[in-house]
Amino acid sequence: MSEEQPIVDAHHHLWQLSGGALYYPWLQDPKPHDFFLGDYAVLKRDYLPPDYRRDAAGHNVVKTVHVEAECSREQQVDETHWLTEINERYGMPNAIVAHAWFHTGDTARILEAHKAFPLVRGIRSKPADEAMMRDSKWLAGLKLLGRFGLSWDLRVKTWELEAAAAVVRAIPEIPVVLNHTGFPWDRSDAGLAMWRRGMKALAACEQAYCKLSCLCLLDGEWDYEDNRRMVFEAIEIFGVRRCMFASNFPVDGLRVTFDRMFGDFKRMTADFSAAERRRLFHDNAAEFYRL
């Protein structure tokens, strides 16, 4: 595939630790459960557009989508404000997926505050477990996304996919995109069977999309053939028109370089038609996030 293939990176993060006004607990005071891709001490540094562009050099990234970077929840709107200023200075990110809790009673106020910033397209709010996805207050907060014209970035573990699919079926008016390929960490026969059930249940919801990202495993290096299998299965389940590639940088940089990741994505899809590749690398993300 030509290196000129335009790319919309549908999922990345930025932060500023040195002299920044925002606080990132998972970076500055990490807990052991945060280290699912390795030692996050490597990430305890500024990561700004020049750093991203250096990582992405050699690939034609034309636009990017910033997904909330787990900033202190007291500063969730401040993060959106900061990212807007970053866009004005650097020309990226081109869309923002912000954060808001769904169960705390102030969801409408927070969503309204985010909507004051034109780059905001959606919300990522991660349910703690399946019980939360059955909580009436949480469900009521989630449904407010429809009122504000926002999409939902859904991040759940593999074993929570079927429960999440039940939630998504009940909100057909809200566009939903699954983060990180549904985390297919367990690639045993039993683990993949569970992942496929959940992915198929979610894909049965017509408004649900899938980000082909974060294919790194809890242990082990990036494996082209194994990840190719997961990419192909996800595309088979969701279809070319509802999948989009994303980097999850800089976090995935703990396991793989941006160049190798996107070089491998291009290699994996070399036999797809030009129109299909453009959808996977550019058009689907651009349409979903209204770029």
Notes on the protein architecture:
The chain has 291 residues and is α/β, with parallel strands linked by helices. The protein has one domain (7-288): Metal-dependent hydrolases (TIM Barrel). The model has no long low-confidence stretch (mean pLDDT 94). An eight-stranded parallel sheet has the order 1-2-3-4-5-6-7-8. 39% of the residues lie in helices and 13% in strands.
Number of domains: 1
Fraction of residues in helices?
25-40%
Question: Judging by the overall fold, what is the CATH architecture?
Answer: Alpha-Beta Barrel
Strand order in space, largest sheet: 1-2-3-4-5-6-7-8
Q: Please tell me what the overall shape is.
A: globular
Oligomer: single chain
Q: Radius of gyration from the CA trace?
A: 18 Å
> Can you tell me the residue ranges where pLDDT is under 50 for at least 5 consecutive residues?
none
Q: What is the percentage of strand-forming residues?
A: 5-15%
Overall residue-averaged pLDDT value? 94
Continuous helix count: 10
What's the CATH C level?
Alpha Beta
CATH topology: TIM Barrel
| The CATH homology group name | Metal-dependent hydrolases
**End-to-end span in angstroms?**
24 Å
What is the N-to-C order of secondary-structure elements (H for helix, E for strand)? Answer: EHHEHEHEHEHEHEHEHH
- Total DSSP E strands: 8
Major sheet summary line: 8 strands, parallel
Can you lay out the helices and strands and say which pair or pack?
Layout: E1 7-12, H1 25-28, H2 49-56, E2 61-67, H3 76-90, E3 95-98, H4 107-115, E4 120-124, H5 136-148, E5 151-154, H6 161-169, E6 176-178, H7 189-203, E7 208-212, H8 224-238, E8 243-245, H9 258-268, H10 274-288
Parallel strand pairs: 1-2, 2-3, 3-4, 4-5, 5-6, 6-7, 7-8
